[in-house]
Design a protein that fits this description.
The protein is an alpha/beta fold. The protein has 2 domains: 21-163, Rossmann fold (3-Layer(aba) Sandwich); 193-347, Glycogen Phosphorylase B (Rossmann fold, 3-Layer(aba) Sandwich). The chain has helices at residues 30-35, 37-46, 58-66, 87-102, 114-121, 153-163, 212-220, 254-262, 273-281, 295-298, 328-331, 335-347; strands spanning 21-25, 51-56, 72-75, 106-109, 127-131, 142-144, 193-198, 226-231, 245-247, 266-270, 285-289, 305-309. The strands form 2 sheets. Strands 3-2-1-4-5-6 form a 6-stranded parallel beta sheet, sandwiched between helices. Helix 7 (212-220) links the parallel strand 7 and strand 8. Helix 8 crosses helix 9. The longest helix has 16 residues, at 87-102. It is globular. It starts with 20 loop residues before the first strand and ends in a 10-residue tail after the last helix. The model is unreliable at 1-9 (pLDDT under 50).
């Protein structure tokens, strides 16, 4: 992740001396929230005594609280992100009443959507900060012009803060994980390495071709010494059971999942929340990127992340489901490609990671 030190000219200074209550507007999916962690830590470091609330889904955003980046979650499942749930439109109106009662000193929007910008501007906070995305920031007290140059998502939010004068020297601290090792010990003593496979994806377009995770697991275990841990929801692709396979699908909350991934030697998965979690944890990760989004902007944070993608002419399509036969962007990523990327991660002691916290 490359830090942005540029300050925009003509932006009014944000009064920071009396900030005691802060609202972070980030009703987003897990991966997007994790990409905002560096910015959230910058805010926490700049205002260490402030009470910080984050607006979003408690299923995801409680993890930010567990990491000390916020003090509480104001529950809000966005009706425009989770489509097909019209009852949430009433919740959008209701949440505004909650926000205004809190009397925040500062509200910061960390999502590029005019509806979040409107929500921020109507929050009742004394100061409101956001990018002026598509000319929707007229009601904000502090609107920052959206950068013309494309940058990584994590850098985008750091640049927003720096442009508003919110700076600190603190880097992102290590992710906290449960102390107890949640991995069940195997009966065999042959295992030398553990590889976590996240076999699911947030959308069908981002998922790998059916059967390839099972083939990958089989290839990894051919010569023994490698344990496979499968994570994901109940509907994620299964891997054939065996004494060197631990199936944890549907059995972890985010803290437990972080503990599982942190103790692995490598991670493989599609562009998804768990892949971003692996990147933040410093676990060597091979991430399979579809043509849905640009990896240059959305790849996980971390020095040990390797992105595999088959670049097609239709990227980025932003589709939930591919409209092309055979899903060429994911079909082009073969099991052999993944194995070639995994081997140096598993064989080189300098890159192999195993947390014992």
């Amino acid at each position: 992740m490359r830090r942005m030190n540029r300050k925009l000219q003509g932006v009014p200074p944000l009064r920071q001396d009396a900030v005691r209550r802060i609202l972070l507007v980030k009703p987003d999916h897990l991966g997007d929230m994790l990409l905002a962690f560096p910015a959230m830590w910058k805010i926490r470091s700049r205002f260490p005594g402030a009470r910080i609330a984050i607006l979003g889904d408690p299923a995801f955003h409680s993890f930010a609280v567990s990491q000390g980046l916020a003090d509480c979650v104001i529950p809000f499942v966005s009706p425009w992100i989770e489509k097909g749930r019209p009852s949430n439109l009433l919740k959008a109106i209701s949440v505004l009443r909650t926000l205004r009662r809190e009397k925040f000193d500062l509200a910061i929007n960390l999502r590029l959507d005019f509806r979040e910008i409107l929500l921020t501007s109507l929050s009742g906070a004394a100061s409101t900060l956001s990018y002026d995305y598509r000319w929707s920031g007229a009601l904000l007290t502090h609107r920052i012009p959206h950068p013309e140059k494309q940058m990584h998502e994590a850098d985008l939010w750091l640049s927003l803060l720096e442009s508003a004068g919110i700076t600190s020297d603190s880097g992102l601290p290590p992710i906290r994980v449960p102390e107890a090792d949640p991995l069940v010990p195997l009966e065999s003593g042959r295992v030398r390495k553990t590889v976590v496979l996240h076999t699911g994806a947030g959308t069908p377009a981002k998922s790998w071709i059916a059967g390839r995770f099972a083939e990958l697991a089989g290839r990894l275990m051919e010569n023994g010494g490698i344990r496979i841990v499968v994570v994901g929801d109940h509907n994620a692709e299964a891997v054939a059971p065996g004494k060197d396979v631990l199936d944890l699908r549907g059995r972890q909350d985010l803290s437990r999942l972080a503990g599982v991934i942190s103790r692995a030697d490598a991670f493989v998965g599609a562009d998804s929340g768990p892949a971003h979690l692996a990147g933040l944890l410093g676990v060597p990760a091979v991430v399979l990127f579809s043509g849905t989004n640009l990896s240059e902007r959305w790849r996980p944070i971390g020095d040990n992340v390797r992105v595999l993608e088959s670049r097609v002419d239709c990227r980025p399509c932003h589709r939930r489901e591919c409209n092309l036969e055979g899903r060429p962007c994911m079909a082009g990523i073969t099991v052999e490609h993944v194995l070639d990327s995994l081997r140096p991660l598993l064989e080189n002691p300098a890159t192999t990671h195993r947390s014992r916290s």
